[in-house]
Design brief:
The chain has 538 residues and is of the alpha+beta class. The protein is built from 19 helices and 13 strands. The strands form 3 sheets. It has a 5-stranded antiparallel beta sheet with strand order 7-6-5-4-8. The protein has a 5-stranded mixed beta sheet with strand order 10-11-9-13-12, with helices on one face. A 3-stranded antiparallel beta sheet has the order 1-2-3. Helix 11 packs antiparallel against helix 12.
């Protein structure tokens, strides 16, 4: 009877007296904080006890339990996770419940969502999901395997020089050589790809070649930094130095990646811009300008978040802060948003083209550029008007540049006293000129003596001709006017600058040619004119 009572008392005394016994194990599983603290604390050099650290895992096999504890600690170190900083955030509450999942779990590190602790019964352990994910996570952090430098260079493994083992110094040297080799070789590889394959048609001047060299250099350095990110964790440097080192390399790598993507976007947009310069459409040039601004903003905006993420900045908090101020931002930027949407609708509907002459509520001019916020219009007085796209989309726009058939309606005033045969010959000659002109529609030609007033005899000239731009309209008008002036010279008619076009004949004492002579002169003139048009059309 006494023996049966004494044995349990003796067992309790042993558990209380022996360090690392079941009492300490029970303290390791009271809360999420206790689980992580026990795991990390007993794998430190000054308090190393892998068996006690393994109590944070709910694994029956002692060997596998210890292996899981060591692997997870190495994963944390390889990822550059500052465990001391994380411990300050982990709740020390046995009844903790995750607000998102409503379960008794706690995710240790937001970049490793598969690593979390959970409550099993009345105790907390690393979850089975964490244990199952360890092999894949370990391979991701150490793709070349763990302790590769110690395995390849096992000599004097226990000696330390400047706080590092010899195999660690050798590993640092090999890693630096690998970085320099990648940087040197890939620099010329990227130059070859950019210069000879992707953008060879557009590398025509030294300045563009220098831009391509700069981009290839940035890409090669970025690849070298990625090599550092892969190999530095394999050195197993103390967490005190490895955490800031890994974070610094990750920051540099993220920054170089954003710069590389930004420069590559510039190259692609440069390629598109060079392509559109060869096309006849002016809209392509404007679309590329808008895309250039848009994609540069997107790359810069997302790149900033990507860089901040490498510094463990809580992006969710930033986004939440932006959403809180989103209403004020939206109210302040609503005009900008309206103008941007209006610019998109202008590009889709195409109510006018670059170079079109348009007339709005209080402006008239030629469209030069359509931007994100406004459209630039050059007026007849050589000034530039900027009209907000939102207002422009609401206006009634008279697009004079879209008129393919332009109507000319002018008057020629011939002074009184002009001989009637001269007037008849001139009118008939103008009709024949217009009939022979290729762009003029023959069924639209009307040249008649319409009235007589104080200034003289009025000849109305009406015709319709086919043109596409304002420049073409002026060019065709110039040609026709020059031919009319030549015809007037043949008939001894002088042109004077007046409010109307005044055609005055020479004094009455001048000899007037006979109708037959005038007709032969006009026939020769029209024949030469028709011959010149045929030669131009060949």
């Amino acid at each position: 009877m006494m023996r049966g009572v004494f044995y349990p008392i003796f067992l309790i005394f042993v558990l209380l007296a022996v360090p690392g016994g079941r009492i300490l194990a029970a303290e390791a599983n009271n809360s999420p904080y206790d689980v992580v603290y026990n795991h990390v604390h007993y794998l430190k050099k000054q308090s190393y006890d892998e068996l006690q650290s393994a109590e944070s895992f709910n694994i029956r096999n002692k060997k596998k339990r210890i292996e899981a504890a060591v692997q997870l600690k190495e994963i944390f170190d390889g990822k550059g996770v500052s465990m001391d900083g994380l411990l300050n955030k982990i709740p020390d509450n046995a009844d903790y419940i995750d607000s998102a999942s409503r379960r008794s779990i706690y995710i240790i590190y937001n970049k490793l969502p598969q690593v979390y602790v959970e409550k099993i019964g009345n105790k907390w352990y690393y979850s089975q999901t964490t244990v199952d994910a360890l092999p894949a996570l370990y391979k991701d952090v150490f793709p070349f395997g763990a302790n590769i430098w110690a395995k390849w260079f096992p000599m004097q493994r226990d000696e330390v020089y400047l706080r590092l083992h010899p195999w660690q110094w050798i590993g640092i040297g090999v890693i630096l050589l690998a970085f320099l080799a990648c940087n040197f070789l890939l620099r010329y590889l990227f130059r070859f790809v950019f210069n000879k394959i992707l953008f060879r048609k557009y590398v025509v001047d030294p300045k563009r070649l220098e831009n391509l060299k700069r981009v290839s250099n940035i890409f090669s350095v970025w690849v070298g930094v990625k090599v550092l990110q892969l190999l530095v964790p394999t050195l197993f440097i103390s967490a005190k130095y490895s955490v800031p080192l890994i974070k610094g390399i990750a920051f540099v790598g993220a920054t170089l990646l954003v710069i590389s993507v930004y420069k590559l976007t510039e190259l692609i947009l440069f390629y598109l811009r060079s392509y559109t310069e060869d096309s006849a459409s002016l809209w392509d040039d404007q679309i590329v300008v808008v895309l250039q601004k848009f994609f540069k903003f997107i790359v810069g905006f997302l790149g900033l978040f990507y860089i901040l993420n490498t510094l463990d900045v809580n992006i969710a908090t930033i986004i939440a802060g932006l959403s809180v101020g989103g209403l004020a931002l939206a109210l302040a930027a609503q005009d900008t948003v309206k103008n941007f949407i209006a610019s998109v609708m202008i590009f889709i509907d195409k109510p006018f083209r670059i170079g079109d002459l348009i007339k709005g509520d209080n402006f008239e001019g030629t469209v030069q550029e359509v931007g994100f916020r406004s459209t630039r219009i050059k007026t007849a007085s050589d000034s530039v008007v900027y009209v907000a796209n939102a207002k422009l989309s609401e206006m009634i726009i008279d697009n004079k540049g879209q008129r393919i058939l332009k109507k000319n309606n002018s008057e020629l005033v011939i002074p009184h006293g002009t001989p009637l045969p001269v007037v008849k010959t001139f009118i008939e000659g103008v009709r024949r000129l217009l009939t022979k002109y290729p762009s003029v529609r023959n069924n639209s030609i009307d040249v008649y003596l319409t009235k007589m007033d104080a200034n003289g005899m009025v000849v109305k000239v009406i015709f319709v001709y086919k043109v596409y731009t304002l420049r073409e309209e002026m060019q065709h008008g110039e040609v026709l006017l020059m031919k009319i002036m030549e015809l007037a010279e043949l008939l001894h008619i002088k042109l004077f600058d007046h409010t109307a076009v005044v055609m005055n004949v020479q004094p009455q004492e001048a000899v007037v040619p006979s109708p037959t002579d005038m007709q032969q002169t006009v026939d020769r003139f029209i024949a030469d004119y028709e011959k010149s048009l045929q030669e131009k059309s060949k």
